[in-house]
């Protein structure tokens, strides 16, 4: 006869085992991380050199660079809200993710073939269309397959793997530039290889998180938006102000070039920034599963302010390196946290829509910030550009201090 104590012990053990099983990250999270690594490597090989290529080879101005970056990011943001909501509507994530990564891979050769700044604009916009199609469904899929108590870890792991690619890519670009005596176009052609590899890994190794049952019977409606919690909108507001403070990373490259760094060594700026991002993305993502978001966001904002001040005042490579490192630390502290907060604040059937709205606000702010940064650079140089970034980061800090983090409302049963 089994005693009541034994029965209770077995039940407790069963609950602990169940909790341990739920706590394991899905293999799909690692697979998505590898996909991001490959595409991140491809994009970093191009973007680490693209601003200097535009200025030195195609004769573009900093204002036009800001316009290109702003148009690219705003296009991506518009596509994200459409693709995120569509993935909820059709009850599928993976087809849209494959379409997005595939489009970005197909357009990569246009960078190597570009003969005028307008060609780069087209390539960047189409590439960002691909990013817009894939990102919201991808983040929703990652949230779907990750337990709530480990979502920060899941997003942090994917972000860390992405930044490994963003570190390796510029190093490869540097090696090819040294070997080829500054052949930008050769670097751009080689970047096609990891882009194609990302699509292959995605198709072969990532499973869809939904079974085809629509999460919404109709396209996005006001009633669906009303189901998004106050925590979600608070997160979107803070992220929007941070986006205004953190314009395109292309201006890091422009700053390095203005200090006299030779074009062949410009990728090292991205290497340094992404190295610090890679080292901190997973630890701070995991920390966000246990810590209060306000403190972690405050740390991230402080790092961004420090980065902007360092870059505004930089007259040496050491100061430039400090600014790039602080920028990377800021990304590692806040990115996984914000994504996990979005995922945890909304029901499963609306996650694609929620990430689409979040990314749309993020991109609209980036468009404003990038175009403004280009104009400020033309009028007042780096000090005006990065000084404005620090000012918006201070505004984000004020919003964080005076607002109250809403308690997350439990998702409604119809959206689970």
Kindly list the characteristics that best describe this protein:
416 residues
Folded structure, characterized:
By secondary structure, the chain is mainly alpha-helical. It has helices at about 5-25, 25-45, 50-55, 60-90, 95-105, 110-115, 115-145, 150-180, 185-190, 190-205, 220-225, 230-245, 250-260, 265-290, 295-315, 315-345, 350-400. It contains 17 helices and no strands. The radius of gyration is 22 Å and the shape is globular. The model is unreliable at about 1-20 and about 410-415 (pLDDT under 50).
What radius of gyration results from the CA coordinates?
A: 22 Å
Structural class: mainly alpha
Question: How many β-strand stretches?
Answer: 0
Distance between the termini: 41 Å
CATH class: Mainly Alpha
What pattern of helices and strands is seen along the backbone?
HHHHHHHHHHHHHHHHH
Short overview:
This protein is an all-alpha fold.
Topology, please?
Elements (H helix, E strand, L loop, with lengths): L3 H20 L3 H21 L2 H7 L5 H29 L3 H14 L1 H5 L3 H28 L6 H29 L4 H7 L1 H14 L16 H5 L3 H16 L4 H9 L8 H22 L4 H21 L3 H28 L6 H52 L14
Helix pairs in contact: 2-8, 2-10, 4-7, 4-17, 5-7, 5-10, 7-17, 8-14, 8-16, 12-17, 14-16, 15-16, 15-17
């Amino acid at each position: 006869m089994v005693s009541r104590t034994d029965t209770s012990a077995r039940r407790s053990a069963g609950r602990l085992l169940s909790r341990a099983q739920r706590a394991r990250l899905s293999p799909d999270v690692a697979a998505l991380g590898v996909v991001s690594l490959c595409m991140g490597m491809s994009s970093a090989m191009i973007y680490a050199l693209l601003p200097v290529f535009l200025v030195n080879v195609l004769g573009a101005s900093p204002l036009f660079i800001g316009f290109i970056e702003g148009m690219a990011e705003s296009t991506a943001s518009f596509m994200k809200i459409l693709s995120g909501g569509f993935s909820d509507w059709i009850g599928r994530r993976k087809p849209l993710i494959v379409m997005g990564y595939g489009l970005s891979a197909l357009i990569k050769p246009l960078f190597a073939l570009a003969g005028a700044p307008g060609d780069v604009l087209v390539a960047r916009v189409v590439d960002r269309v691909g990013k817009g199609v894939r990102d919201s469904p991808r983040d929703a899929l990652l949230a779907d397959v990750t337990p709530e108590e480990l979502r920060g870890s899941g997003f942090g792991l994917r972000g860390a793997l992405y930044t490994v690619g963003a570190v390796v890519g510029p190093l490869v670009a540097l090696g090819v530039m040294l070997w080829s005596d500054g052949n930008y176009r050769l670097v751009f052609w080689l970047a096609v290889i990891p882009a194609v590899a990302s699509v292959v890994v995605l198709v072969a190794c990532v499973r869809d998180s939904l079974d085809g049952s629509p999460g919404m019977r109709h396209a996005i409606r006001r009633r669906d938006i009303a189901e998004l919690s106050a925590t979600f909108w608070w997160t979107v507001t803070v992220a929007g102000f941070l986006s205004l403070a953190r314009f395109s990373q292309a201006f890091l490259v422009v700053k390095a070039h203005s200090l006299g760094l030779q074009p062949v060594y410009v990728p090292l700026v991205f290497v340094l920034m992404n190295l610090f991002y890679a080292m901190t993305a997973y630890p701070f993502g995991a920390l966000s599963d246990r810590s209060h978001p306000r403190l972690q966001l405050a740390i991230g904002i402080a790092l961004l302010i420090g980065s902007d001040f360092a870059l505004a005042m930089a007259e040496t490579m050491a100061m430039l390196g400090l600014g790039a490192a602080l920028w990377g630390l800021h990304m590692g502290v806040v990115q996984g946290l914000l994504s996990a907060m979005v995922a945890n604040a909304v029901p499963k059937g609306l996650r694609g829509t929620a990430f689409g709205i979040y990314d749309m606000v993020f991109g609209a702010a980036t468009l404003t910030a990038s175009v403004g940064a280009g104009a400020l650079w033309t009028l007042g140089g780096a000090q005006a550009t990065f000084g404005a970034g620090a000012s918006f980061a201070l505004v984000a800090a004020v919003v964080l201090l005076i607002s109250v983090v809403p308690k997350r409302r439990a998702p409604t049963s119809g959206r689970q």
